[in-house]
Structure formats: C-alpha cells, structure tokens
Design a protein that fits this description.
Blueprint (H helix, E strand, L loop, with lengths): L1 H32 L2 H23 L15 H20 L10 H23 L4 H17 L8 H24 L6 H32 L19 E3 L6 E3 L1 E4 L5 E4 L2 E2 L2 H5 L2 H12 L4 E3 H9 L4 H19 L2 H5 L5 E4 L2 E4 L4 E3 H17 L3 H14 L12 H27 L3 H14 L4 H13 L3 H19 L5 H11 L11
Parallel strand pairs: 3-9
Antiparallel strand pairs: 1-2, 3-4, 4-5, 6-8, 7-8
Length: 511
C-alpha cells in the first residue's frame, strides 16, 4: 500500500517540477491547451476513484470475513484516494499538451495502459468488490469521451449508442445480482454501476447532439477543388439548406506557391501579399499535422519575439483580420468562420475547407496500400492523383520558418517516395520511358536519392541511352562526394559497371 502511495506522490512531484521549470513555460502551455472536455473527464475519473475508495472502506465485501480490511484506517483510505486521484487528474488534463504532436493517440494509449495496470492492482485490493469493474468502466467511458473529440474521425452517434447499450446491459446484470442476492453488497454495486452509467449517458448525449447538428446543417461534401486554382469545378460550394443560400468551399493550395480559392474565385495575389501576417495563421494551421493548433503554439511561432500581452494582442488582431479577409458573407451571418476556435485551439472548418496537403498524403498512402496488396493498377491511379497535386515544395517561396522546415522536408520525402514506387511499377512492366518520366519528377524534388539515380540510369540504359545512364550515375556520385565526402554504395557501383560493359540487366533485380 505504502509503495503505491510513494510512487504516486513521486510521480506528482516530478510532474510539478516539469511544470514549474523554465519559468513555468510548460504549465502555461498546459493551461492554454486544456479545454473543458479534459477538465470534466478528469473530475469524473477522480470522483469515481473517491467513490470506490470510500465504498471499500465503509462497506467492505471480501470472500473471507476473517481477512484483514483493505484499509487499516480512514486516514489510509483518504491518503490513498487523494494521492491516486492526483495522478488520475494530472494524467487526464495533460492530454492537451499532446494535441499538437504527430500522434496524440499514443499518449492516450499510454494512459490506458497505466490505468489498466492500476485497475489490476486495485482489483487485488478490492477482492470481489464490484469497484474493480467500476474502475475499468471509468477507463472506458473517460477515454471514449476524450477520443470522441479533437482530431479523431469518429461517428459519435454509433459510438455513443454502443457505449450506452453496453453499460445498460451491465446495469441490468447488476440489478439482477441485487435481486437474487448474488452480490453480497447489492446496494453498493448498484451505486457503482449507476455512476458509470452517468458517463455512458454523457457520451451518448454528446454523440446525439453532434449527429443532430450535422443532420440539421445537411452538410454535403463535394469533390475537392481542381488542382489548378484558375479553373472552376462544379460543386465547389456547399448546400446548407433547401434554399439557395450557399457557403463557398475555401481551397488552400500549399504545395507550391500559396493560393486561396473561395468557391470558384481565386483570391487575388495582391490581396494575399498585403495580408501576409494574418495569412501566416492560416498557413500554420494548414501545414500542421491534424490541423488543430493551440493558441499558445500559434503565438510562440509567429510572435515569439514579443512580450506575452503584446504577442497575445497581435495574435487576436491578426486573427480578426484573417477572418474578415476570408470569411464569406453567409458564414458571417451564421456567426461561423473558416477558422474555428475549439477551446484554446484553432482549426480549419472540416466541412467548408479543403487543403491539398491532406489530399496529397491520403492519395499517396492509398497508393502504398494498394502496392502492398499487389493491386498495381489501383496503386498507379492513386499515385497519379497525388502527383497531380504536387505543384512544388511546401509553401514555395516562403522562408523556412521553424514551424515550416520539418513539414516541408517530410512532404518532399513523401513526394520522392511516391514517384520511386510509381517508377518501380513501370519498371516491372518494362515500360522504361514511363519509368524515366516518373523518376525524373521524384529527382526534381530530391536529386540526392541514390535509389532514384539507379532507377533513372537503368531506365535510360534499357532505352539504349547508355551515355545518359552513365551520366546520371556520375552526376549523383559527384554530388555525393561533394556533400558527404563519400562514395556510392556497392549496388550503385555494380550497376555502373554493368552499364559500362554493356551487360544485360534484369529490371526485376532492381525493383
């Protein structure tokens, strides 16, 4: 028991140290990113823990009446409940800190493992007590409540019905146990289960409200805008009702020079140039993974050199300018915006905005999945769609700001890999002209790819262009030596030797 107490208190002390160091920077970020959902879930979990702890102390139910009670005194029960309650509370509210990370779900998974391990420990303390089931129920309800928001795409109505149905069955089972005296403490069991039912009802109501709102608005998601912003495409606005009121789709083109298209009309380049700072907010949200960015991160990235109050005022001023610039009259009349505020975070409206980055990544990933499944034709179609969206590097022409550099490099790597995979498909079909065409697009993004250089040389050699093939390898070797002071790999050297000596090469060996 005391080991658990010291472990929880030690974890709380480490947490406090991390929050308070560096002029409380992490604590400020926590307060800025944590929304009402996290506070409610944390309070719910802690209250449930307290309910179980009190139940175990005041109304113990153990199989052996002669066994020692779980808690020797009320003070021990109180200290246990408070110490573990603090850990539960801090772990839950800290989810906000990980919202802007690439995989916030990993944090939730870690939290689930932690609570699961704790429930097993608590089960040993409770023996046959229904409180062990309550702890597991709280884990499920609490995590589902967090999962139902933020980045994850979940159909809330379906999810909430499943949760409510499952816990309703549990409540019926508990009631039957009370009636037939299967459970030695039926009243306590019903109280426990009823508390979990409150969480299940909450998730159900949240899902029902969200689903009803979507139905009332009658959102219809059309095809994305045409990759050429100057061209129009039918369906680039959304019907919101049976009337003629329409909200135009805002298309953000971030691959290549930045462009905005509202409905069928591109926003003039002169307007974009005269509003560069407000548009920085829009760009940062668009290029961020998940596109749900905390206010604190936006301020740090764009006004990090300013003092706190001044930076916050500059952000608010430029956010207002951004909304005034891009929001359509219909959106303004409905008191909505293309840039939504979600607690202390900001995101693009999921129904009224389209970002080429998301379409590019989705098509590329689809192509890779088809490739792994051996569906080459479908993979090629997906790669072609992704390649058509690539108009250049991310926000081409903009200085590599700290918030931009990593995403730009990663997308360039994604573009290179998709063109390499597409080139391999044509290499497999012995279509060497198309192989050269596709790998050339990839090398235009990153000319220092050794695999790309080999594929280019092989495609040129098979077309009878021996000198071009040797030049491709030699140019790559020269860049490699200049940049890294090293030589090509043995595989590349072998290919160069085969080409020089006019040997027959099997393309299958190089795929």
């Amino acid at each position: 028991m005391w080991v658990l107490l010291f472990a929880s208190l030690g974890a709380s002390a480490v947490y406090g140290y991390l929050m308070l160091r560096d002029n409380r920077k992490l604590l400020k970020r926590l307060l800025a990113t944590t929304g009402p959902k996290e506070w409610i879930v944390a309070t719910y979990l802690v209250f449930g823990l307290g309910l179980v702890t009190a139940g175990v102390y005041f109304v113990p139910s153990v199989p052996n009446p002669n066994a020692l009670p779980v808690f020797q005194s009320g003070l021990e029960a109180l200290v246990f409940g408070v110490s573990w309650g603090v850990v539960f509370f801090l772990a839950t509210v800290s989810y906000g800190l990980f919202r802007d990370s690439r995989s916030p779900e990993l944090y939730l998974l870690g939290f689930l493992i932690f609570l699961g391990a704790f429930s097993l420990i608590f089960m040993l303390l409770l023996h046959t007590d229904f409180g062990s089931q309550l702890i597991q129920g709280l884990i499920v309800v609490g995590l589902l409540a967090i999962f139902s928001s933020d980045r994850l795409e979940i159909e809330l109505r379906t999810l909430s019905v499943i949760v409510l149905g499952g816990f309703s069955v549990w409540l019926v089972f508990t009631g039957a146990s009370a009636i037939f005296r299967v459970e030695p403490q039926p009243t306590k069991a019903i109280i426990y289960t009823g508390f979990v039912m409150l969480g299940a009802v909450w998730v159900f109501l949240e899902g029902s409200v969200a689903a009803r709102k979507r139905q009332e608005q009658r959102f219809i998601r059309p095809a994305p805008p045409n990759p050429d912003p100057r061209e129009t495409k039918e369906g680039s606005s959304r019907d919101i009702s049976t009337t003629s009121i329409r909200i135009p789709l805002l298309g953000l083109y971030c691959l290549g020079p930045f462009r905005l298209v509202q409905g069928e009309e591109p926003i003039d380049d002169g307007v974009l140039k005269s509003n560069q700072k407000p548009l920085e907010i829009l760009k940062l949200i668009a290029v961020s993974p998940g596109r749900d960015v905390s206010r604190d991160r936006l301020i740090d990235a764009l006004w990090g050199d300013s003092l706190g109050d001044k930076a916050a005022a500059n952000f608010q001023k430029n956010l207002s300018r951004l909304r005034a610039l891009i929001d359509s009259p219909v959106l303004k009349s409905r008191k909505e915006s293309y840039v939504l505020a979600r607690g202390s975070s900001y995101a693009l409206h999921p129904e009224y905005t389209w970002v080429d980055i998301e379409e590019f990544v989705t098509s590329t990933n689809t192509g890779h999945r088809y490739r792994q499944d051996g569906l080459d034709d479908q993979a090629m179609s997906a790669f072609e769609k992704a390649s058509a969206l690539w108009r250049g590097t991310l926000l081409e022409g903009q200085a590599p700001e700290p918030w931009l550099g990593h995403e730009r490099k990663q997308l360039e790597e994604t573009c290179l890999n998709l063109h390499i995979e597409a080139a391999k498909l044509f290499l497999k079909k012995a279509d060497f002209a198309m192989t050269e065409r596709w790998i050339k697009k990839g090398l235009a993004v990153n000319p220092d790819s050794e695999q790309g250089a080999r594929i280019m040389a092989l495609a040129q050699y098979e077309q009878g262009k021996k000198s071009d093939a040797l030049k491709s390898i030699e140019d790559f070797a020269a860049r490699l030596k200049k940049i890294l002071q090293t030589e090509p790999s043995p595989k590349t050297v072998k290919l160069r030797t085969l080409i020089r000596t006019d040997k027959k090469i099997s393309p299958a060996e190089w795929i």
